[in-house]
Predict the structure.
Amino acid sequence: MKSKVLILFLLMLSSLANAQVKFEAEVSKNRLGINERLRVDFIMNQDGDNFNPPSFSGFTVVGGPNQAVSNSYNNGQRSYSKTYSYFLAPKERGKLRIGQAEITINGEVYKTVPLTVEVTAAVDVPTDGDNSEYVASENLHLVAEISDTSPFINEAITVVYKLYVSQRVNVSDWRQLDNPKFSDFWSQNIDIRRLQVENGEYQGEPYRYVVLRKTVLYPQKTGELDIEPLTLNVSVEVPGNRRDIFGNRFYETVEKVVAAGNRTINVKPLPQEGKPAGFTGAVGKNLNLRVTTDKSELRATESLEAKVEVSGQANLKLFDLPPLTVPASMEKYEPQYTENVNTNLYGMQGSIANTYTLVPQAKGKYPIPSVSFSYFDLNTETYKTLTSEEIMLDVNAAPAGAVSPSRNDRAAVAQQVPTATNQFRYIKLNANLRPVGKEPFFNSALFWSLFLLPVVFIPLAIFFGKKREAIAGDVRGNRIKKANKLARKYLSEARKNLGDQEKFYDSMERALHNYLKAKLHIQTSEMSKERIQELLVTRGVGATTVADFKDLLRNCEFARYTPASNVAMKQDYDKAVQVISEIDKQV
């Protein structure tokens, strides 16, 4: 009975071990040119015998088999991987099939799933399936996502630039090479305070991505308009061919230039049918028109304000407000333009207004006629006209003594003429003068002090004037003093912001940059990591100090993507103080 139980237990262990066996085939790409190479990997998680590759019909084996073994331990658990790699060159175009490979593990035969790849015509730049440049380009993509590729003229569209990174590679750094110039567009960037890494998909595969830039565009011409690409230089960490003693691959850093690609949008003109005569180019949704006055009853020669306001979601900064008409017996001054507009992914939202100053000249009833405003409604794709209500002003007689303003002297509004009886009442008739002193002022100590004071003051003024001119003429010294002052300021701000990650690292990064401007006399545009390292080494700064300074800059950049603890921020602050002190000693 015991022997049967033991045999049953061993069979269960064997079946459990067999259930955990994995034997899979992977290709470097599913589509390639006939002049390119393909890499095929056969990967197993347990060691086996009698490996039998497929026939590779339709291909020529140009390399392999290369064998790689990875054996590591994590928390006491063993992780094993063994890979057979082949490099293939296709013989013909079309869909070619890679058959099943076989291997024996623990007495059981395992087979891979057949794979199919598509071979196309020759490509201009052939790539090797094991080339680091190719791996980086296949796993890194900069994409420009456009909200609408067929908008109306003056309709808002959004361009969002996303950097997609595959799980197979890592990005250590990036910098912008070229900014897109949006010709024939009114454009405004939307601020992104902090870059966030998110999970998503690119062409059906799982990717990580970061939104780098958001821009709102209003096309100003009809027809096909081009949107220039955003271009970046990205440092990509790619798994290389070398391995450590445990079989883990070393990563190689590849500098890759990626661009979002040119995009074309087709801008439609606004329809001519039903276009109102007073249309000034407003395009939007849910617009409102308001005409208001701050008074409904006043006296002649007094002033009031009338406001014409349009609010809603539209190209608010790109059209004219309708004018306000008033009776001929009422003075109207040039309007004051104000706007309260916010721009987000949906375009401009808010309000714009013209505020007029009006002055009625005589008693009576003054009507302010209704105002009409037309716009193209994107919801219905038709023109709509908004009309305000007529406003009636009740003007009473002017106050006694008021002077009616003329057209040539608009400042004289509602002036009061003083009466003749009291017009000199502010003049003091009794001065109550008192003598300065009983003794005569001439030849006194005060007399000679005041007399000699200019003689002493003039040389001092000349000396300090020359000193001030010398300081003002020292442009380089003033720039260094200013940068030193800013560095101390920002470093003190970083200390105050300990605990607030975003503000702390922003203040510390500015402090480091301004310190470099003071010490190395370079401008912000020259502050690449390579340039900083070169200048510090040239000035005799030690390699350890240079590396610590670069680490601080890198920590400031990484803080945009990953959270940091209060302990890490305190360590970075102490390290910044130490590094600046070391550079001061060595330079």
In short: The first strand starts at residue 23 and ends at 27.
